[in-house]
Amino acid sequence: MIPEPGVKWKQIRGVIWKYNKCILKKIKNPNFDYVGEEQDIIYEDPSDEATKREVTDGERFMAAAMGTPLNANKETVYRNYFDMPRVPYYMMTYDQWGKIAYDETSRIEQNLRNQQNMDKRGKSLQ
Q1: Contact 36/77 with Cβ under 8 angstroms?
Q2: What distance in Å separates the CA atoms of residue 53 and residue 43, rounded to the nearest whole number?
Q3: Taking the alpha carbons of 79, 39, 55, 83 in that order, is the dihedral positive or negative?
Q4: What is the DSSP letter of 110?
Q5: Of 4, 20, 28, 68, which is most buried, counting CB atoms within 10 Å of its CB?
Q6: CA–CA gap between residue 91 and residue 115 (Å, rounded)
Q7: Which tens digits make up the pLDDT trace of 85-110?
Q8: What is the pLDDT of residues 63-91, one digit of tens each?
Q9: Distance (Å) of CA 41 to CA 22, 34, 106
Q10: What's this model's pTM, rounded to 2 decimal places?
């Protein structure tokens, strides 16, 4: 997609659920944490980043009971493996009839009844 001159836009990768030409739902990549979670963080040695740790519930309780301030900083922690969101997945099928993304039934669904009948016959023969 080429933007028009003077128009600012940002490409966002996501997931879309669609039936024919109707868009059912669209969301950002569900495998990426965009919001994060605020946590209280304490540094054992303020000059060393490796001594960073989360405040425990016991430390919070003791600080509240003693009336002393808790020397903690609030930081937003993101639970992501990659720095940037990746493409969620690639949809591919081998039987395509052109009606929907996946065929109306899969091979497992088609053979489920056959397997159940075989299970019943095997039990009755024993």
Answers
A1: yes
A2: 6
A3: positive
A4: H
A5: 28
A6: 28
A7: 877 666 555 555 555 555 566 666 76
A8: 888 877 777 888 898 888 888 887 766 65
A9: 46, 20, 49
A10: 0.47
